[in-house]
Specification:
Elements lengths: L1 H9 L1 H4 L13 H12 L8 E2 L3 H9 L10 H8 L14 E4 L2 E6 L3 E18 L2 E18 L3 E13 L2 H10 L9 E2 L6 E14 L4 E8 L2 E2 L15 E10 L2 E11 L16 E14 L2 E11 L21 H7 L5 E12 L3 E11 L2 H6 L7 E10 L8 E10 L14 E2 L2 E2 L8 E13 L2 E14 L30 E17 L2 E14 L2 E15 L9
Antiparallel strand pairs: 1-10, 2-3, 3-4, 4-5, 4-25, 5-6, 6-8, 7-8, 8-9, 9-11, 11-12, 12-13, 13-14, 14-15, 15-16, 16-17, 17-18, 18-21, 19-20, 21-22, 22-23, 23-24, 24-25
Length: 551
């Protein structure tokens, strides 16, 4: 393995500035990247904006030189998957010439990789109402490649049928949003079975050594935590244009996206409709104060321009990549929803990191000082810690995270400006008016076996008696039931959720996984009997990340 790493490192001078597609969100390579960054105080530590491409891995390992003793067997294996490794015995001479790619063409100026996508699960859920069958049936294709050394491309296409646990179906049918997806229709068991098509893809282009531009459909994530309070990968894919500039100790990202306003699904309407659009613009600046301290600031604005003629257009003022959005939003009459915030991460003792994220939607200092519970003081806070290689055991890692968001955060007068996309939150799956504790542990006893467990302890104040208490971010905040003062955190129907999961994953072949998962969820409040869901399933995955319903 040391010989392989030496050869791997020796190729960096060739591939470091060649463009490559992003490492998919949810890929376990990110765990190895964070672990090595933390343990080695890697100076070029900009891991807040995801996804990243393989060049981050190459630069990270290049910083280690030829000293691979700091890498565990699991990390060496994960990093090796970012490179093409020839198979000893290709199938019919043309297939699996590389260990992780079904079909590949590799020329000097052009590379193409084609992989089948398959995700099959079968499970059983037991609730107070009885026993339900669950399954996922996904078949598709992944295509990626390079054109020269500056252009990369990626495409993912899949047909899906799913029958979900009852608590997931309840959320889908209440909010008209299928987590992570867009258009869907029911089939077989109405209200529990869903049929939909997944399609996303993008081009990525290195404009200069320091500037990368991406355009296409996909998802992005901003934050150092398990959750994000500004932009997560929970909602559907969206059309985006992203520029990323990395120079000195700085990384500056501009993201422009076209979203879909909240709506009744077309499958429930008679005839075809054009869904209303809205738009998202984000700036994020990341600065490495030292080798082990990273600080970032960000601003985002969600807006729509739907007049009586349904003429929809992008607000051109927000195209400026070097400006303070709040000043622009005020200058054009304050019609939009601006969120600002900061993030901070500190690595210490070469085994741990602590991080925080703060988002500010609206704030009135005089009202805050008067302590009258002003409804318009809307903000959220995340605090977290990660510990790597517990007790000196390689790849035994732990996570502890706390999230809280005040009532009415992310909301606006109408759905043209609330922080949602395709009937799903852009940030945290729970919306607002909640607190959450996440505790997790993960262990790789050897490179291809992963055991993990997580616990989510959630308290949320839900609406009741036709009163908007601030949890439902799809509702307008121009609501006469919202009092100007006396707003309190977790107001409304206090609801407690306990979600526990244990997962065992074995990588049979490169990017081919076998999963065993057990989930227990307890949901209780004062207005209904306690709901308990016990769910177990077996799964087979090929070239696709695990679907998670953690709410």
């Amino acid at each position: 393995m040391r010989k392989f790493i030496f050869l791997f490192l020796s190729t960096f001078s060739i591939v470091l500035f060649a463009q490559s597609p992003n490492i998919p969100l949810g890929n376990n390579v990110y765990d190895a990247v964070l672990r090595v960054q933390t343990k080695n105080y890697f100076q070029n530590n900009h891991s807040t904006s995801l996804p990243v491409n393989n060049n981050v891995v190459y630069a990270l390992l290049d910083s280690l030189g030829n000293d691979t003793s700091q890498l565990s067997k699991t990390d060496r294996y994960l990093f090796s998957k970012t490179q093409n490794r020839s198979s000893k015995k290709p199938i019919l001479k043309h297939f699996y010439k590389y260990k992780k790619d079904f079909y590949a063409i590799s020329k000097k100026e052009f590379e193409l990789y084609v992989n089948p996508v398959l995700y099959l699960t079968r499970g059983t859920e037991k609730t107070i109402s009885g026993t339900n069958v669950t399954y996922i049936n996904t078949r598709g294709l992944e295509v990626k490649g390079l054109i020269g050394k500056k252009i990369g491309f990626y495409s993912f296409l899949a047909e899906n049928q799913m029958q979900l646990p009852s608590y997931v179906s309840d959320k889908v049918n209440m909010e008209y949003g299928l987590p992570g997806e867009g258009y869907y229709k029911w089939f077989k068991d109405k209200y529990r079975s869903y049929d939909f098509f997944t399609a996303y893809g993008y081009f990525t282009f290195n404009a200069t050594k320091h500037v990368n531009i991406q355009f296409g459909h996909g998802k992005n994530f901003i934050g150092d935590g398990y959750r994000s309070l500004v932009l997560s990968d929970y909602s559907n894919n969206y059309l985006f244009l992203k520029s990323n500039t990395k120079v000195w100790k700085l990384n500056y990202q501009t993201l422009l996206a076209e979203l879909v306003s909240d709506h009744i699904p077309p499958s429930l309407l008679a005839g075809d409709v054009l869904l209303d659009k809205k738009y998202l613009a984000i700036h994020h600046l990341s600065y490495n104060l030292t080798k082990n301290i990273n600080f970032g600031v960000f601003e985002s604005v969600v807006f729509g321009r739907n007049d009586t003629t349904k003429a929809q257009h992008f607000e051109l003022n927000y195209l400026n990549p070097l400006i303070f959005y709040r000043s622009i939003e005020q200058a054009i009459g304050s019609p939009d929803n601006v969120i600002m915030g900061t993030n901070l991460k500190i690595n210490f003792l070469k085994t741990a990191s602590v991080y925080t994220q703060f988002v500010l939607d609206d704030f009135n200092f005089s009202e805050f000082k008067n302590n009258r519970g002003y409804w318009g003081n809307k903000f959220g806070l995340q605090l977290g810690a990660k510990y790597f290689d517990i007790a000196g055991i390689d790849n035994l890692d732990a996570l502890l995270e706390y999230n809280r968001v005040r009532p009415y955060t992310y909301t606006h007068v109408n759905d043209d400006a609330n922080h949602t996309h395709y009937n799903q939150p852009l940030a945290h799956p729970l919306g607002a008016n909640f607190k959450e504790i996440i505790a997790g542990i993960k262990y790789n006893p050897f490179p291809k076996l992963t055991a993990s467990s997580k616990v989510f302890i959630i308290t949320q104040g839900l609406d009741m008696d036709s009163t908007n208490y601030g949890a439902n971010i799809y509702l307008s905040n121009n609501d006469p039931t919202i009092p100007a003062n006396n707003t309190s955190f977790l107001q409304g129907l206090k609801t407690d959720i306990l979600l526990m999961d244990m997962t065992l994953t074995y990588e049979w072949k490169p990017n081919i996984y076998l999963d065993l998962k057990v989930i227990r969820r307890v949901y209780e409040n004062a207005l209904q009997p306690t709901e308990t869901s016990n769910h177990i399933y077996l799964g087979f995955r090929m070239n696709v990340s695990e679907r998670k319903f953690e709410f």
